[in-house]
């Protein structure tokens, strides 16, 4: 029996000499991570994550993605929102996630034991986020990131990695280093894991926890959403990941994805903030503006 990345989870805190710094107004993630459109690439990121043998095995054995896919997604998005909008709570959430994942391990079909908190898979889960941000800006933003915005996004994702206690040695030092790492992982580490295929197959199906009487009414909506979700998921995967999974992607598919992306990118800025942003993000942005108004008022008070 072999063990992925060591028999014990690494001491991540000892490898992270920099104290994590919470996010706030003025950061790129503050403006983008809370948008509902930021979740569009979520399934593609999950596919990339579970194609890692360790992550796929742990998710296969221990996750509720089969029995409660909507609940799992809601909990994941709430946690992600906390990382960016939670202030000091973000630091606590990073510690909570580490403690939650510390005991999680599973054995695959070949007898290999995989730990959720081993350095490589723990880093991969986080670092797929930068790929998702760049890809989402390409398809679903009003305009792709400029080089300066891409550098800012990279720096902030490294900051986020420290909040999540990713070992410092696993964080790329530059954008070119990141892409070398990312393409090497896709080509040489990821596998066509069965969980990735299951996630693709689930798209368009009525979630299993929808009550029986409601299923006929929900089915058409699930089918329509599944077609769009599958288009976006497959289209936002790197070509090598699509090849490994054996899924096709045509020029016609690319045109349809770009058309959907343009519609999303142009319409999103026209929506009210309450509609554009998820609840945690919206409330955090409101609270930050209220604090700024209070600080201005205090600064202007008669002395």
Can you give a write-up of this model?
With 303 residues, the protein is mainly alpha-helical. Helices cover 62% and strands 2% of the residues. The chain contains 14 helices and two strands. The chain has a two-stranded antiparallel ribbon with strand order 1-2. Strand 1 and strand 2 form a beta hairpin. Helix 4 (69-85) runs parallel beside helix 14 and helix 6 (119-140) runs antiparallel to helix 7. Mean pLDDT is 88; it is low at 1-14.
Rg over alpha carbons: 20 Å
Whole-number mean pLDDT: 88
How many β-strand stretches? 2
Number of helices: 14
Largest sheet: 2 strands, antiparallel
Give the uncertain stretches in residue-range form.
1-14
Can you tell me the overall shape? globular
Distance between the termini: 74 Å
Strand percentage = under 5%
Helix content: 55-70%
Give a short summary of the structure.
With 303 residues, this protein is an all-alpha fold.
Write the layout of secondary structure elements.
Layout: H1 28-32, H2 42-50, H3 53-62, H4 69-85, H5 88-101, E1 105-107, E2 113-115, H6 119-140, H7 147-163, H8 175-188, H9 194-202, H10 215-235, H11 239-245, H12 251-267, H13 273-276, H14 279-299
Antiparallel strand pairs: 1-2
């Amino acid at each position: 029996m072999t063990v992925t990345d060591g028999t014990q989870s690494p001491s991540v805190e000892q490898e992270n000499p920099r104290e994590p710094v919470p996010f706030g107004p003025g950061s790129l993630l503050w403006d983008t991570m809370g948008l509902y459109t930021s979740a569009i690439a979520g399934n593609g990121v999950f596919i990339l994550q579970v194609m890692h043998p360790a992550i796929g095995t742990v998710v296969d054995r221990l996750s509720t993605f089969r029995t409660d896919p909507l609940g799992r997604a809601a909990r994941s998005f709430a946690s992600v929102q906390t990382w960016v909008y939670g202030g000091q709570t973000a630091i606590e959430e990073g510690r909570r996630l580490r403690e939650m994942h510390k005991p999680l391990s599973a054995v695959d079909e070949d007898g290999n034991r995989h730990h959720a908190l081993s350095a490589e898979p723990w880093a991969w889960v986080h670092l797929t986020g930068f790929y998702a941000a760049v890809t989402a800006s390409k398809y679903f933003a009003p305009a792709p990131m400029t080089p300066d915005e891409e550098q800012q996004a990279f720096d902030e994702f490294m900051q986020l990695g420290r909040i999540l206690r990713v070992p410092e040695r696993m964080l790329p030092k530059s954008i070119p280093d990141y892409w070398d790492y990312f393409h090497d992982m896709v080509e040489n580490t990821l596998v066509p894991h069965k969980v990735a295929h299951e996630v693709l197959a689930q798209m368009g199906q009525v979630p299993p926890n929808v009550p029986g009487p409601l299923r006929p009414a929900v089915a058409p909506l699930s089918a329509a959403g599944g077609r769009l979700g599958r288009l976006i998921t497959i289209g936002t995967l790197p070509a090598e990941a699509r090849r490994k999974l054996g899924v096709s992607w045509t020029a016609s598919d690319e045109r349809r994805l770009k058309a959907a992306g343009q519609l999303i990118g142009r319409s999103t800025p026209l929506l009210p903030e309450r509609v554009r942003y998820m609840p945690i993000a919206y409330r955090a942005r409101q609270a930050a503006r209220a604090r700024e108004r209070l600080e201005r008022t205090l600064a202007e008070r008669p002395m």
